[in-house]
Amino acid sequence: MSFNWEEKFSKIPAISDPGELEMTPELKIKEDLYNKTSTPGTFFRSTFLPKSELKNAQAKEYTKEIAEHQVNWNEVKDEMIDFVNEGNPNIGWKLHLNISPENVVFVDKYLREKGICFKFLHGSELEDGFIFTIYVGSFQKTQEISKILTKDLQNFLAQPHKTNHLEFSAGVVGRFRGAEYKNKDFLFSSYSPSGFSWLEYDKRNYSLKKTTKIANEQALAKQKKESEIRAIKELQFQYGDYFFPEEN
User: Fold this and answer.
1) In whole angstroms, how far apart are CA 215 and each of 158, 209, 226?
2) Are strands 118-120 and 132-137 parallel, antiparallel or unpaired?
3) Which residue, 98, 100, 137, 211, has fewest beta-carbon neighbours within 10 Å?
4) Smallest Cα–Cα separation from 199: which of 187, 184, 207?
5) What confidence tens digit (pLDDT) does each residue in 63-121 have?
């Protein structure tokens, strides 16, 4: 399905007049989400962990003893996942672990024995620190799994360094991805600066203005907040507590 992005950009509704945005239910959800995890890229729980920042060209350092691989569904235990779309691990929360080469064999074996749904490298970028990608599902289940991972793997984890992720626990970061809808007039992006999917036309509009420098920092910050409002509103409508449970 093709989309006229220029036409979509012209139809994006303005949420407020210039200036500070008032607190909305969506911004309150974002505030609660970041309070339970972190603001994107602020990995304060992980500062005590060692660094591991290998370049993509050094991938062979990771695959000396085990080959990169996708999810082995025969090893995944039901209690380790709760996907809203069965068989599609990309819709929901996923976690990433940054691991030094000397520790990958142990971590791979641990994740298999635990029954965790994961892949090792397989298209991930070393420079992003995506050595192991763990597919979980709901926010609640992701919190649960992240604490287990930190507890069991603390001596094997390295500092995360991808800035568009949220820190669930020490050495364990993640992001939420919404589905791409064909029967609606928009798509969710696969990622954003916020740790959760934006509407695709917002993501493209923001990226265009940022890379071409046609908007100043203040205007970009305001557009980012407006994009987050629209994204959270739709994510809550589509996924509810699966994305993030609202506090009463």
Assistant:
1) 36, 6, 15
2) antiparallel
3) 211
4) 187
5) 888 999 999 999 999 999 999 876 688 899 999 999 999 999 999 999 999 999 999 99
